[in-house]
What we know:
It contains 16 helices and 3 strands.
Amino acid sequence: xxxxxxxxxxxxxxxxxxxxxxxxxxxxxxxxxxxxxxxxxxxxxxxxxxxxxxxxxxxxxxxxxxxxxxxxxxxxxxxxxxxxxxxxxxxxxxxxxxxxxxxxxxxxxxxxxxxxxxxxxxxxxxxxxxxxxxxxxxxxxxxxxxxxxxxxxxxxxxxxxxxxxxxxxxxxxxxxxxxxxxxxxxxxxxxxxxxxxxxxxxxxxxxxxxxxxxxxxxxxxxxxxxxxxxxxxxxxxxxxxxxxxxxxxxxxxxxxxxxxxxxxxxxxxxxxxxxxxxxxxxxxxxxxxxxxxxxxxxxxxxxxxxxxxxxxxxxxxxxxxxxxxxxxxxxxxxxxxxxxxxxxxxxxxxxxxxxxxxxxxxxxxxxx
Length: 368
């Protein structure tokens, strides 16, 4: 075997150079957020719980998911059928909790696949043997309210309504707060002074009295509450955005953008706003907590969403009126506290992830 080596064999071998790509600011924030274990797992639990509440009709409903009757398949969850369809006498919508209808489904060749919790949030179980409000039982795992409605279904759908309300109210308040604070902080001078005086006058209006007046004129509802609370929900955030714009408008990159001929609006939204979003992002979970508490308080006072819309505040009011029905107050209060704790843990973790000083200190402490 020849030991001769070619020039290529004698040449030194070098490893390919790999370029180091620095992660984006958003990715670095996400990496720091994931290290906040309590806040990170709170986010996962909250998202999973909200997703489960969105899919609640599939697992908490008084209508079967699928029915096989006389050789035909029916999907009551997605389509309305009359009692006549299943051998009844009335053309009205079938009551799938009726023992007569259930007996028809139990015949040979027929079946009905019910959700794990066979109750909707407004289902009245007329065939219950226990007086209402009924304690937890095999039929109603968390008991019933004073009208005989399943408490588990009311809590699940009430959780969904509360989160949806908080998301919409937070989104609207954030948009208005950013716009108002950005205009005042960037232009300053008379614009800032006039804007601040107008905001002071507007914030002096009695919000609760306005809610009571409008509730007496119009029927309270989801949309009306969103509109009324959005009129005042942006004020606090606008102060933080204004302070950030006042600080950042004197930075060198703003002067460079002006020298390049960019307009004021381009400088505001392309350059100053991305560097002023820290308080906006930090306060999002806390603003959601405030929105949930506002809806719960209004529902408790009877100024919130109308019945039979599921509401945590309405359940708390029932617990106050039925002190012997301990399960209503206990489980409702537990769901409300869990929601607020999860959002608080998320807000704290997000604040720590956005504050590089806190993250560096925690990293230094971990290295020690």
